[in-house]
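Researcher: I'm comparing several assemblies side by side, and this is the next one on my list. It has 984 residues spread over two chains. Same procedure as the others: predict the full complex and return the structure.
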Amino acid sequence: MLKAKNSLELILFPAFDWRISPTHPEREERLLYTIDQIEEEGLFDYENIKIYNPEMIDSKYIEMTHFCIPAISSIVTVSHEIAAGSAITIAKKVLSKEVEKGFALIRPPGHHAHRVTYGDRGFCIINNEAIMVEYLRKEYKIKKIAIIDTDCHHGDGTQDIFWNDKDVLFISLHQDGTTLYPGTGFTDEIGGPSAIGYTLNLPLPPYTSDEGFLYCLDNLIIPVLEEFKPDIIINSAGQDNHYSDPLTNMNFSAQGYAKLTEKLSPNISVLEGGYSIESALPYVNLGIIFALAGIDYSNIKEPDYNPERFTQPQRISDYIKRLCEQVYSIWKSKEEREYKIKMGNQDYYFRKKSIYYDTMGFREYQLEKIKICKKCSGLISIDSFCLGYRVFAIVIPYDACNDCQNEGHRLFENTEVGDYSHVLLQDKKNFEFFRKPL
Amino acid sequence: MIVGLDVGGTTIDIVAIENGKVVASKKFERGESLIDSVLESLTQFISKEMISNLEKITLSTTITTNAIVQNNLDKVGMIIENGIGANPEFLMCGDMNFFADGYINNRGIEVKPVNIESVKSTLQNFKQEDIENLGIVGKFSVRNPQHELYIYEVAKEYNFKFVSVGYKLSGKLNFPRRVFSTYLNCAVYSTFNMFYKSILTFSQERKIPLEKIFVQKPDGGIVNLHNIECFPIFSILSGPAASAQGGCVLSNFVKNAIIIDIGGTTTDIAFLSNGNLVLEPYGAKIGKYPTLVRAIYSRSVGLGAESIVKIVDDTVKIGPETKRWYEKGKNDFITFYDVLQFSNSYHENPINAGLKSLSTQLNMSQEDFCKLVISRAAAMIEEKIKEGIEFINNLPVYTINKFLYGEKFVPQKIILIGGPAQLLKPHLENELKIKVEVPKHYMVANAIGCAVGSISKEYNLVADTIQGKMVIPELNIYQSIPADFTIDQAKKFLIEKVLECREAKNQDDVEIVDESSFNMIRSFKFCGRMIKIKAQLKPKLLNLRD
């Protein structure tokens, strides 16, 4: 029997009977060829590569991660629940040390789902990785978590959820927001007042190739991870940076993905986007699986791959070098910046957002208010307006001091339902969720 | 009348069944030469009267399995087109191996043609090194066997004794298993051929037409001796299938059950789920090689009637070493069978010195000692049962519907067969807290299972309307389809073809076990369908009336 260097758990849940619409790119066919390739490769025969079926998510974890409007049951589909459940199954197996690494090949993806969610954005309704983090903290008391988002689109939902949480380091590499959905993820998005520098964005120019991605890894991501010392590394493994992807303009190859995975060595990878289902996904997924399991991947190349076609122009290399230096300096100066904010006169930090739901064609307007607290990361309240709903959502963070916790509950008590359609409270410290009217 | 013959570790069991009743059964000692023993017992058992109304004879033999385990194999040259994927070194199973350049992708599209000149010089080399058997395997060849067939045509000029191409062994995807299956198919050729010829001579001498002689396959199905000549690998590991099938037909029907066959050296455990024997997802593992040979899923424990009971480090150990009763000397050891006999008080004078000495070592009475041994044995069996249940309940599901509504496997009873079944029954029932049924004829259930087997086969149809092509590797069908081909047409076509090949008598014998149809979208436009259908011949187990 074959044996891989690292034991690996795979969840293969292609949801063959679920789709958004008949010609939508996020469709049933997406993982079909990948499963063909995995089966033909005989991956199920490695004695330490295990395939598990997903489990259904306990809605408590959705509640503790998202404010679903109008309700979980009305916007979250079974497929999304299974995808999020898969992330939890993976986390369980890795954390209980049953396997060393885990990869959830699931659909639909989740990294565009924000804290408040009214429905589908970029094929995402709930955030699989964020829900997994909630689970890791609750069940395994994991403290420091790094999420590296390598999808071609900015992981704006994940960024939003962990914006003011310095226990979660979020780094996103993506095609820059001026040329691609969702139009965010610039270098100046660096986190809330208590977590400055714990959100890092690397917007890459179109046509960046393997060289550029691996440069970011060697010169920014790995050094930052070494300093942050996470207890667990999660990879939001989007595969749409591939040169054949129909929705993006990057030049990443299967070999590049495999090398990136080998260097990053995440404990858990969760599939996000990737819509070149025939020319890219079978090879990229195989490359990632081999790299995670520590199997030689040198023979995995797309049949049409010609590295000369994808030589990176010098100007892109120069730009990426400067980009990494700039972002690294943000990371280095994070304490200084936080100190300035906390010592200043400001009591609150505001963030005004306008969030477009591309799949459904509507817009949400949001005002987020974060208390600048010297004892904890600070109470968060969100005033959101969309589709005729007006939502008031309160988040008591994990590390909340007594003052912020009491203030959060008081705010919930004193806010009248009449003014809002929804008044909601996540008390993350006590793992409790409240809604008005009950 | 049908006759079933099963070669076990110690005996050859034969039964004759007529009108759903077992009319004769016999156990023969296995001699030095397996082929001679088989022929000898057939000759003794089958009378002239039997031949006159003989419907079929099914043989289950360990001959090819033994050849593999004992490494008594032919020299094989392998031509492997490995394409894109894992580093192929681990696939070097032949005596000489060559990795050919070329690639066919998962949709069966040729991405890179095969480099035939290098293949030709390799074939020349093989011949120079006295290699007689040749295996040819390509990645994704079941989606398009063009490269395998091209090499096969070229190889004809070199006059190999036996040539096997990978795509004909199974329609399933799994390249390493296809390579190993093809290799083993070539490597056991001579051994099987010897057996084949002996049976052929026997059938001619006894005037039994060859069409009436079948071989048991490891999936519980049977195949005509004539049809298996080019696929000797299908005769491996038929024992567990015969016993599982025997257990099924002899017991009262339930949907979910565990079938346990306790023999002399091992106990085999198989699973009946939703009325069907559970199969290995890809195929059997033979020796160190995982293969694509369809096989029932079974777990084996090194525990049988002849397993020696010992004490190691103050704990009881049973097996895997065995001793036959006639090898016993001066009561200096005891077997699991002795323990069972003592506990059931079937034996008048069971207190032997061995049992006494073992129980004394643990400061126990002989009764308590025997209880301990049996509970240890039950635990060994239970562990394997749990493994099997976990395996069945974790088989991958790919659709929401199956995930949400798929039933979990919960066994309703154990069907216990094999020599010591009666003795073990009350203990197993007591220890595992589940109903245990020992059916009539439990002693020769294997041979019965062998006799009642029907032809079994799986078919994998893949249709790709963009390319306008459809493949059914198992029926050697590769043909064009119109762009508007649908899943219903595909199902109809598959059933028609199976009937045409006379592999099924009527439409109801073909069961569609899996089906899917995916829209293929390029540039946000629908441009075709990918249709996949898996069908099988429904196992038609004979109902025994007594």
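Model: For your comparison table: Residues 7 and 97 of chain A are 10 Å apart (CA to CA).
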